[in-house]
Specification:
Butyryl-CoA Dehydrogenase, subunit A, domain 2; Butyryl-CoA Dehydrogenase, subunit A, domain 3; 3 domains; 4-stranded antiparallel beta sheet; 3-stranded antiparallel beta sheet; 10% strand
Length: 394
Amino acid sequence: MTAKVIADDVEALTVAEALAAEFRAGAPERDAERRLPREEVERLSASGLLAVTVPAEHGGADVRQETLAEIFRLLATADASLAQIPQSHFVYVNVIRRQGTAEQREFFHGEVLAGRRFGNAQSEAGTRHVQDIRTRLEPRPDGSYTLTGVKHYATGALFADWIPVLARAGDDTLHVAYVPRDAPGLTVIDDWDGMGQRTTASGTVRLDGVPVPADRVLPHHLTFRGPQLHGAVAQLLHAAIDTGIAGGALAEAAEFVRTKSRPWFESGFETAAEDPLLIQRFGELAVETKASEALLREAARSVDAARADLTDESAAEASVAVAAAKAHAARTAVEVAGALFEVAGTRSALASLNLHRHWRDARTHTLHDPARWKVQHIGRYVLSGTRPPRHGLL
């Protein structure tokens, strides 16, 4: 593959807007048929968008997090599944930037600039909680390793060139092993059957004694021994997806009411769009959506500020700002996507129109992590100055 190299933030946003318009046209059919977006993912790679966070010293644009969040929001207004597929890609590019050796950074940033994609193999089912990682990274006499375990919800793995795997070493510390998609002993199973985010292919990854060279393993546990933005960046992208879902649902609802809805007979108006009760509801939904967009921008700027001067306090400010954006966006996405039917009327429920994909996507994606715990950490920080924990999920 030959991938374009994007020069700066402005070009990145221009490319993202064009791709969002392109991806929007086929989104209802892809979801309805559960047709995996292989061609669209290839377009995403070729566009250069997947390399926009590569540092300048390795030839990348190194865009602001505000720009990255807007890229995800734009893509999610068009197709929330497509927007989610590269989320882990950027998270694990960030791990390389933070914990990679000079040689690892040079190699993997070169891979990303060439259009290579990272998936993920991190979550496990049947464990005590989300951080109970049981996949093992076992040392071999020659200094290399083998990986053994089973991963679930492996978004992006089916489309990936490299699959970053979260695993514990012999001393129980957390590492990331970057494994080629075609490595012996690695199997990606397309068994995702969620009601929403249907084309993310977030299935299962099996690791049966997968060989891993020593220079493909990074010490992820070191990420959390000092101030860090790993969780803030990951959650910022999730917040951007939820915000995009809300914006996409609101735009589609407005278009439906303008062009397809009939007025209620008691309103006395010729068109549904003139009904003051509908106008009021659209105004309420727009306020919530714009609030989510504003919180997303504020959170992204807070992350950018912390990247420029990373301290315990700046990291805490960024995490809290992202938590606020994510909690608000999760609620907004579900509300706006559900209200689409309220304002558009009976016809909007037709399966052939597939307008319900917005609600299914919102309801599924917002289950990633509970907003109630984000609100708890916000409250503690505001009330007593307690900084949020460094567990990578905030």
